[in-house]
Design brief:
The structure is a homodimer.
Chain A lengths: L1 H14 L6 H8 L3 H13 L3 E3 L15 E3 L3 E9 L2 E8 L4 E8 L7 H18 L5 E9 L2 E3 L4 E5 L4 E4 L1 H4 L9 E5 H10 E3 L2 E2 L5 E7 L1 E8 L2 E3 L30 H4 L1 H6 L1 H19 L3 E6 H4 L1 H15 L9 E4 L6 H16 L9
Parallel strand pairs in A: 3-6, 6-10, 13-16, 16-17
Antiparallel strand pairs in A: 1-2, 3-4, 4-5, 7-8, 8-9, 11-12, 13-14, 14-15
Helix pairs in contact in A: 1-2, 1-3, 2-3, 6-12, 9-11
Chain B binds a DNA duplex (30 and 30 nucleotides) through helix 3.
Chain lengths: ~350, ~350
DNA sequence: GGTATTTGTTGTATGGCTAAACATAATGGG
DNA sequence: CCCATTATGTTTAGCCATACAACAAATACC
């Protein structure tokens, strides 16, 4: 019960637009001021919350002490992409404390060498963060199918990688069971679902389509990413658009990626929009979430894609007369996956804050 | 906290294969025997649980009192299908206490007249149930898109119905805000997900494909139906299989229903299997649940459909090398939707058992 | 400067839990 | 047949986190 309310208070503070006082938290949670006060104090001493200076009083009465996410808590987020390597330290308020991004064509690269380089970048970035920050975990975003339990990358066609034991290839301390590995689209979607760790973004239910050379996707329901049984959900890139279409690297034919992947898109935006519309209609028919958010190279081409996408979706989505589809664009951030990887680490902390709070 | 543990004890008893004793519930939940004893007593006096006679002792020690779902608690489940009307009273143990099923072609029928007849059937069936049963709610399964909040059927092409205010057309006492209306596939899927109210069925994560003249579907994750934002999820029947395919009643072209609907299936099972495989590959790519359960007319043709379905899915599902797709068949029950409607009512009760238990 | 108002803290009471002791009902061995 | 053994279910005492109420602190309004 204490654990449950500890989570509740922490979540309420992080979800708020403006730093709330203890009394405001009590009002929104339904707990009493005394209970919130006690729990908030524990969270402050645990470093998960910070007290800001009393703001200039907005009205009568004693002004409250604004509470915000603790700036001393941080996580490392890394990303391997066909076009770059990235590493970031992000704090619990969502601020990037330090980062490094190295462009370079990694298709057909050697996993051992690339992960060694990523390890060096990570170490440098961690050192660059303020000495007082406590790193609570590390995450990595990769463009492919992952076995999350074992931290293994099963298949990443656009890197030319297959069955890579990521945890073992990263330097000790970085890898190991403490590292969470996940799909890039899934993690990038987190940065749309959350404006900062624990704070809801502009949409709570949407399908994120990630254009990172290939085409990936992620399902967000009620603000949370739905990863599926094994974390492989959202693979929109290999939905069949035309059963007689061009062969795909996955072994099938006519996959969306063959129309809306970076190379295909450059050749014919019209066709890419049509194919996206057909595939996304299936998504909306299945999931009943009319909001689509485009990321990566698809975000750049959004204005050219939108008419075709909407036309096909309006025709093919059964519920479109009652709930018209809506195509939005994600904020520009080349390494959104890295930030998302850090957010995922924070989610584990927010689920069990008691572990970071002094007992009793 | 009491509410939470009340739910926990009730759920544990209902989920068990064999009627558990208080001590067994304590062991599986982690609560103490004394706590379970108190909560179980409350549930028994509330009628949600029954005590069975002490079974012949299986070993040494004092034999426990077996607990089962209360037989006095029941719900009415109704179903409108293109081929029949059905009404059932189902108790909390999942037994059908009374039922009525009237075949008849309802395509192009008059909603007002049909719902009047269904009302009469429901009344008769309710009277036929033992006088001691307490009816805790009523549910209705319909083959179409529903606005659950308002109990309105927005569109049911295979009945030829559109925008039918179901709650208002059913006789007072039956309709009204107490009636829950939902899609047939969603409710039939509940009878696969649960062997009895609260007891898990053979699969916990699967996609249910309902063949009831048209083709519907439902997503089941971790034993619970995922209805989507507005309850419209799972509409697999209108996923595009061939963008140049035959026109569909929904206004699009090449929808799965045009290949695997009852009429099309009778003409060419081969083609239906191919189309199902293409559409279900999209489902699995998106949702990462490799188990497919076929119901209705698709269940009857399952053996003929399976080879084609599996062939297409294995080619088109990205994760199939690691997790091969699996096509199963639902148990035969023409009015599974009616039972599922009753189960849905029970779920509301199981979520808030305190409302049926005497206070304090 | 006094009063009203709101925040945060400090004591007290309470509800539901755990833990331990006890009563109950069976088995099995001498 | 009687008694030790074993397991279930109930009773009792103690405890923890919460609600409730009273109070101290800090501001605005008159």
């Amino acid at each position: 019960m204490r654990d449950s309310n500890l989570r509740l208070v922490l979540a309420t503070v992080l979800a708020a637009e403006e730093p709330p006082s203890r009394a405001a938290v009590a009002a929104t949670t339904g707990l009493t001021r005394s209970t919130v006060s006690r729990l908030a104090d524990e969270l402050v001493t645990g470093g998960l919350l910070d007290e800001l200076d009393r703001s200039p009083a907005p009205g009568r009465g004693r002004p409250g002490t604004p509470l915000v996410a603790g700036s001393g808590v941080a996580a490392l987020g890394m990303q391997v992409n066909p076009g770059f390597l990235a590493a970031r330290v992000v704090d619990l308020r969502g601020r990037v404390l330090s980062e490094d991004l190295v462009p370079g064509d990694l298709s057909g690269s050697d996993p051992v060498e690339v992960l060694r380089r990523l390890g060096l970048m990570a170490r440098t970035v961690e050192r660059a963060a303020p000495a007082s920050t406590r790193l609570v975990g590390r995450g990595l975003a990769v463009p492919g199918l992952v076995a999350a339990r074992h931290g293994r990358l099963l298949s990443a066609p656009n890197l030319g990688w297959a069955d890579v034991p990521i945890r073992r290839l990263l330097p000790r301390g970085l890898g190991g069971s403490a590292l969470t590995v996940a799909n890039e689209a899934e993690l990038a979607a987190r940065t749309v679902a959350a404006a900062a760790p624990g704070r809801p973004g502009p949409y709570t239910d949407f399908f994120y389509v990630s254009g990172e050379v290939g085409v990936g996707g992620a399902i967000v329901l009620d603000g949370r990413v739905f990863g599926g049984r094994y974390g492989w959900a959202g693979e929109v890139g290999h939905i069949t658009v035309d059963t007689d279409g061009p062969p795909c690297s996955c072994g099938s034919r006519g996959c969306l990626e063959q129309y809306a992947g970076l190379r295909a898109l450059r050749q014919d935006v019209e066709r890419a929009g049509w194919a996206l519309g057909v595939a996304l209609a299936a998504v909306v028919n299945l999931l009943d979430i009319p909001t689509i958010v485009l990321g990566g190279h698809l975000a750049h081409a959004a204005d050219a894609l939108r008419p075709g996408v909407l036309r096909e979706m309006e025709q093919r989505v059964l519920s479109s007369p009652w709930r018209p589809p809506d195509v939005r664009v994600a904020d520009e951030d080349p390494a959104a996956g890295a930030t998302g990887a850090a957010y995922q680490v924070f989610d584990q902390v927010l689920d069990a804050p008691a572990s970071l709070v002094p007992q009793r």
